[in-house]
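**User:** Here is a favour to ask of a fellow structure person. Please take any protein you like and set down a full record of it. No explanation is needed for now; the record alone will do.

**Assistant:**
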Amino acid sequence: MTRGLVDTDGLERDDIAALRAVTPPDDLPFTIGKISHVVMKVADIERSVEFYTQILGFRVSDAYPDSMMPNRMVFLRYNPDHHGIAIIGGASGPAAGAELHHVAYEVDTLDEVFRARDHLEKHGVALSFEGRRRAGQQIAVEFNDPDGHMVEICWCMDQIEPHDKSRPPEDWRAAATLEDAVRNPPPGQDVTLADPSLLRNQINSGDTL
């Protein structure tokens, strides 16, 4: 399967149209505002704390000993919330990605995505993707943490009001590098960099989600 493919016929299939047509009940007594936090199992808790604090800039809020959580637990934050992720030791090996595909963290500016790319490469973290995704149109870099969990740092996901429709596929501008994402923006996405020197020269092709 080519991850960059936009299958216009498949997007109009009855089963896909039926999935898009599902809506929540109007009388739901609550509204989910955001993903609060994600909890992940890791093989080496010290190694994971080192990665999330030293490479991604998270801060430790609290930690549990084995007496409170088997294999210990660490709570880490990236905003004022007490924790955005928590990690629990005891994983038997690398994550298989069989249930949780990836976790994405948003930054405020496009420049930060470019700087994140440079920072990750400087620290020997291999990128599995950079550029613009299809549905959602966020510009992102993706990589794996030490346990193989896929992590995304992204900017400018499309915003949709409750009763509006998402951007149509013909307005998608998938891109396989950050530079391609800047050179070919979708309607309405301002990709002006505060620091244009962050741009590299190459234009590559590749797959997108």
